[in-house]
Amino acid sequence: MKRIKVEQLVLFLIFFIVAIDCYASVPAKIQNGGTIVTVPGVGLAPPAAMNGFNPFLTSSAYDSEAEGLMYQSLFWVNRDFKINFKLSVAKKVVVGPKHRSFTVYLHRHWKWSDGVTVTTADISYTYKMLMKLGPLYPGWDSGGFPNDIESFKVLGPFSFRVITKKSVNPRWFELSGLSYFNPYPAHSWEHYSVKQMNDNMTNPQFYSVVDGPFRLQSFHPGRYASFVPNKAYSGPDKAHISRLIFQFLNSNASVFFALKSNAVQLGNLPASLYPARKQLTNDHLTIVGPIWGFNYLGFNFLNPKIAFTNNLLVRQAMMHAVNQDLMIDVMNYGYGSRAYGLIPGNPPIYLSPEAKSLLKHGAYNPELADNLLDEAGWHRGPDGIREKNGQKMAFTMYMPPSMVRGPTLLATMFAKVGIQVRLREMPFNEVYAQMIDPHNKKWQAVYLAWSQSGFPTGGSIFKCGGVQNSYHYCNHKMDSLMAKIRVTPGLSALYKFQNYFTEQQPVIVLPNMKIFVMAAKNIHGVSRAITPSGGFNPQYLWVSHDK
């Protein structure tokens, strides 16, 4: 499981693995060779196209998925959210006694595909590029980067030191702050301007120097991207397959039919078609999840037409109006779990006692929702929709393709308490473009999800004026609680923040769903290739060949 990027904004993200193998026999010995055709977002989200491969300039999880194949992380975070230094570029981290000094030592065996050794020159290049890009970098102002950093210094070719401005929570800073110092090929990229990088976002030649297990072979806009193993890969887990193709399909249904015709050998089975899985006679099923992140209904708090969402009582009423158990049963055939905050419940290592209790008992209470809306001054009109000062309590929700069932259920539940929801289907890229446009105050609500870091804090998505705060939400007490997580060792500060977040519901958190992944019967290693961070490590896949 590689470094977790807090900035990734996608649908139905990260998870623990439960594998169900529906085939009789597996060859005892791993075999090499073979081509696998899959789709972006496998085990992660509905399919979408990849649009670029530069880690400095992209934020989509689909693009990050490809970048993770080409570039090795400074830290490889395992399923227990601890750093596995055997798989990391970093060899170890030494933390100073006051938790302000972090000295990172690199392994000496990592090499770029052209034979050049990976050194702190590549780390330094990354740091300089991020500082040069500033807020243009999608992950700016997250994980303590750069505002909590006082200095960065190269100590030698295989060691560097980061000094923070004040004492910090070392576990948080290692998993969230230092993870930004991934090495990228300075000797290959340093002569390019940002404009030139933008012009080469999809040029395979630009990405010819890599240190990850794969390299980009070809890219065909709107059609597919092809990857082949990096033959010079210096890591311990070399790829077994000879080629990996990401086919760009635009809906879950299209993946199903591609699986059925064997045009795709690995892809997500949409929950709506779970009963039809028996039609995929040449495939086996792996169930992954629930996600390490949170699904949500988010609002544009600057849109005056939905000013009622600024009222805490209204947001709390929405939380109590959502029957999460029903959503799990109807949408995912019972494969899922309740969620009320931004701290994932599986594994429960970061959950506060209050959060555990809430997850156990649930919060569905439509009578309480009605009372809260009445208290907020919104009363039912002749048509059952609540009104106040001549305005109806109604909003338009954007939803990505093939995600109709969840929003429809949500709209039905809200209608029972007098809230009208209008649904509008829109491609993910268009939804995202509207959200990140600081001048667009017209969009009202979105049905999306957000990935979490290895030490979740809320990042800049909820921070007043945060770079990723497309919702324009601002709560200074929440900012203060988030800030304390960064400087307080242990989990006490995180507990206080998550409890307050659940009370405030800056977004209406929705249940976490497991994901059904289908693979051809001769494809093995799926449960290992799909990680709890939402990552995809196809170097662990292999294809058995008929003799």
Describe the structure.
It is a single chain. The protein is an alpha+beta fold and 547 residues long. The protein has a domain at 299-513: Dipeptide-binding Protein, Domain 3 (Dipeptide-binding Protein, domain 3, Roll), CATH 3.10.105.10. It contains 15 helices and 25 strands. Strands 1, 13, 18, 19, 20 and 21 form a 6-stranded mixed sheet that branches. Strands 2-12-23-11 form a 4-stranded antiparallel sheet. Helix 11 links the parallel strand 18 and strand 19. Helix 7 (312-321) packs antiparallel against helix 10 (366-375) and helix 13 runs antiparallel to helix 14. It is globular and about 75 Å long. This is Peptide ABC transporter substrate-binding protein.
Distance between the termini: 33 Å
Beta-strand residue fraction: 15-25%
Largest sheet: 6 strands, mixed
- What is the number of helices? 15
Report the top-level CATH class of the domain at 299-513. Alpha Beta
Class by SSE composition? alpha+beta
CATH architecture of the domain at 299-513: Roll
Total strand segments: 25
Average of per-residue pLDDT values? 90
The rough form would be described as globular
Q: Low-confidence spans: pLDDT under 50, at least 5 residues?
A: 1-26
Helix content: 25-40%
Under CATH, the homologous superfamily of the domain at 299-513 reads Dipeptide-binding Protein, Domain 3
Backbone CA Rg: 23 Å
Provide the CATH topology of the domain at 299-513: Dipeptide-binding Protein, domain 3
Organism: Acidithiobacillus montserratensis
Protein name: Peptide ABC transporter substrate-binding protein
